[in-house]
Write a structure and sequence with these properties.
Elements lengths: L22 H25 L10 H6 L62 E8 L14 E7 L10 E8 L2 E8 L4 H4 L4 E4 L7 E10 L11 E5 L7 E8 L2
Parallel strand pairs: 2-8
Antiparallel strand pairs: 1-8, 2-5, 3-4, 3-6, 6-7
């Protein structure tokens, strides 16, 4: 008897549950499902970046950083520059001339001796007018704590003359004064030909111990007489304002 005699060829063969689907087919299906899930996840993150399922969302990333303070640049405080209207003292009105009373001239038969005419003394090219005013008009930041000499230089038509030298000479409170300035150095404060001599922050009384000279651009020719000035502790007179004007 052969070993194949007991085999029933009409009976269907026993197969395991995995006989219809191979193991590799099942693994392929699992991988495809996982790929589809991952694709759907990335699509969700792309459409809704701030979804709770996205650990790297912009909203979550911002929570991990400390806000950086913004630096506000500090600038310099603006310097306050006072603007003042140039002060031009009023022109003095000439007094009326005296008309002498007519007196009878005695008749003489002796011809009079001819009296020589005196030689006219040449006058300086410029004359000066001095006024004493409050320094707060031009230096309000100092109040009464300022003393000095300022002024302008004009020609015969009241036009400003620049570039002329000014010398302030003499003594003040026991100290020798020899200061130099040029007309036109302070045009914004006093006018186009404005000049100034700063004598300190404490006003002092003095009488004609200082005098001012106007000279040409080279300084060799004196264009005015010595202008003697006073100084005052009075806050209404602590600035000496000198106006030089060219004689016609």
């Amino acid at each position: 008897m052969s070993k194949f005699d007991n085999i029933d060829f009409d009976k269907p063969a026993d197969r395991s549950p995995l006989s219809s689907l191979e193991k590799w087919d099942i693994l392929s299906i699992v991988i495809l499902l996982a790929t589809a899930c991952i694709g759907l996840y990335y699509l969700l993150v792309f459409l809704i970046p701030n979804t709770p399922l996205n650990p790297l969302s912009p909203q979550n990333a911002a929570r991990g950083f400390t806000a950086t303070p913004t630096i506000t640049p500090r600038g310099l405080e603006p310097t306050w520059t006072p603007s003042a209207t140039p002060y031009i003292p009023p022109t003095n009105t000439a007094l009326p001339s005296f008309t002498p009373v007519y007196t009878q001239t005695p008749v003489s038969l002796v011809p009079p001796t001819k009296t020589p005419q005196p030689t006219a003394t040449p006058k300086s090219p410029f004359s000066a007018t001095v006024d004493y005013i409050a320094s707060s008009k031009y230096h309000p930041e100092f109040g009464c704590n300022w003393m000095g000499v300022a002024g302008i230089v004009l020609d015969v038509n009241n036009a400003h003359v620049n570039g002329l030298q000014l010398l302030l000479l003499g003594t003040l409170n026991g100290k020798t004064i020899n200061n130099f300035s040029i007309s036109g150095m302070l045009p914004l404060l006093y006018g186009a030909s404005g000049f100034e001599f700063d004598l300190g922050r404490t006003p002092i009384d003095s009488r004609s111990t200082l005098y001012l000279q106007l000279r040409d651009q080279g300084g060799a020719i004196q264009l005015s007489e010595n202008v003697y000035i006073n100084t005052y502790t009075d806050c209404n007179k602590n600035m000496t304002f000198v106006r030089f004007k060219k004689n016609p």
